[in-house]
Fold:
Amino acid sequence: MGFKKNLIYRLLTGVLACTFAFTPLSVYATEDIEAESQAAYEKTIESNTWENWPAGPAVYAQSAIVMEADTGMILYAKDIEQKNYPASITKIMTALLALENCDLNEEVEFSYYATHSIDYGSSSIARTEGEILTVEEALYGLMLSSANECANALAEHIAGSNEEFAVLMNEKAKELGCVNTHFANPSGLHDENHYTCTYDMALITKAALENEDFRRISGTDYYTLRATNKNDEELWMQNHHYMIAPYRTDKYLDDTVFAGKTGYTTDALNTLVTCGTRNGMDVIVVTMRTRSTGEKGVPLFTDTAALLDYANNFQKLNISDNEKTFVVGNAYDFSIDSNELNTTTSLISIDENSSVILPNTVAFSDAVPSITFEEHADGNKAYLTYEYAGQTVGKASITLEDTSDDEFAFSETESTEGQSASENGTRFITINLKVIFLVLGILLAIWFIIIFIYRLYEKNRAKIRKAINIQQKRRFLNRRRYRRRKRR
Structure:
């Protein structure tokens, strides 16, 4: 009897010990996660500090950006250069390079490494060694099902290995102007040397959206992969992006979303790229390092929906349709009204496809333009660059039009940094009427002074001649008188 009581006592003691030992750890872990999520939610949104700028929503992502896809204009910024692990949104860069370097009908053969080097349980469409897909089919597997073996196979097809493909990825990132990116593989599987930021991912996505095949493939809700040389059955694939396809839930479907990519690893947490249309604009939303909750899609897709809707606060205005006055001289900040040139010939050509992005409450004239110069491989180019609230809101390339009108004389000039402003014989100019008028005024003043001096000289010369004549006449008369006296 005593033995049984002792046994029961030990069991109860053990249960109580376990309860006190482990329950607080679980609670503390949950509290830490909630505290981290709340801290992310309360982080400063830099764009909300911009003067006269629409306030954006708080989101649970550690880093988030909203970018207009055509101009690259940043509408919303929350720690956009923070270094984060991208997970599978890496595959947007992989798709971009595949589309730039391959024909869609090229055949891709899967190697042993491509199919066996991926992490167990990671995204895959179960391709096998020696299986052959076209580049287009591999891209559908890459973008819809986030298949890591497709990323590997495309990388090997293009560059020979993942390592060499990573070199191409980093070169492309640099070319696009990325500021905090280094890729180590084509899939986004975790590597400490594989990182990027929301700003860079928005730039990469912007470049990818310029390719219609990327838009088509990335925005497809589902795709049926044909039977191959290694698989006798078709494979049905559905887009993992909840706003494009009813993958696991249809709660977040949005027919204005036309492209995107999901990503997740335990180190990266949730990452998401979403491309949608708002107020006539193509908008890119990137969120990184978002913690999941118990409900699928929350807060990842609710944050993105809020950020997409935030873009409705902005308007896209064509520059060539609205520009009437622009800054023409950096040194004097002098403005020209094209209507005052008294000519029907257009002297300056503004890119017809360029736009500015401004808050809905702001007029085009509120954006301040200036002429800037940029270096390019084929020479320097001149731009009208617009700023509002301390932010660059758009720019348009400008060129000097061919004209036979000799009323105005323009000369090729250089930028303030001494860079030649010409390209292939086409002159890029700065016009400074203030200097022209000043020079003309000085020349006119000099002309009047010369005329005045000349007339004064002529007048005095006449007086001198008259005086000389009188003096000579007097001398002549005096000589005559002297001779008459002498004769007497």
The mean pLDDT is 83. The chain is about 35% helix and 20% strand. The chain has three domains: 40-314, 323-431, 439-488.
